[in-house]
Amino acid sequence: xxxxxxxxxxxxxxxxxxxxxxxxxxxxxxxxxxxxxxxxxxxxxxxxxxxxxxxxxxxxxxxxxxxxxxxxxxxxxxxxxxxxxxxxxxxxxxxxxxxxxxxxxxxxxxxxxxxxxxxxxxxxxxxxxxxxxxxxxxxxxxxxxxxxxxxxxxxxxxxxxxxxxxxxxxxxxxxxxxxxxxxxxxxxxxxxxxxxxxxxxxxxxxxxxxxxxxxxxxxxxxxxxxxxxxxxxxxxxxxxxxxxxxxxx
Length: 249
Fold this sequence. Notes:
The structure is a single chain. By secondary structure, the protein is α+β, with helices and mostly antiparallel strands. The chain has helices at 41-57, 64-84, 136-142, 148-151, 190-193, 198-205, 211-224; strands spanning 3-11, 21-26, 29-36, 92-93, 95-103, 106-114, 118-123, 126-129, 173-177, 184-188, 231-240. Strands 2, 3, 4, 5, 6 and 9 form a six-stranded antiparallel sheet that branches. The two termini are 19 Å apart.
């Protein structure tokens, strides 16, 4: 089995009164959810999503299809909970993460995403964003109407185009990534990426061999940069890969 090490950190930030982010970090699943809805509803939505994945983590032999099905179940629970109480109607959450899944050629890392929370990989000093934001500004960037830099300050930068708590149930993007010893992954809410640009994230992500120290420093620097939103990170290291696993992409 893969040998993984990880660290987590979360903070309400310097502006918000409530932390609506939720996270899960267990040996086979690493998830961050960024709730939306106000009046504590966002917190409920993100907790419901993470709780559904916590149940999946108890299962042996998780597949990519299991991840997609769990997203669907979480979406149904969020919709049901919203319908039960008027003050939670319309609540939702982004969801992104990494799962250790069984594949024909051994264990793989499945990166999955709904919304604008992100997964990055730091490999040989190079930082790559593995997920694609489901957001209004990303669509503008893809269409060539604005630059990625302009997207950071665009008035619609907080508008997501796909989230849990919606109908029809959102389909997650899922990518299989071969585990490579020495690679480091970052799972984070937009409270981090809204404050720090990728070069700063890359530097901080590589600032310590200890994933917990790196997670703490990322959140610390996001707060120092303004802390306008809740910020949550999971830093995941691939420490050892079995001989049967692929050597790389």
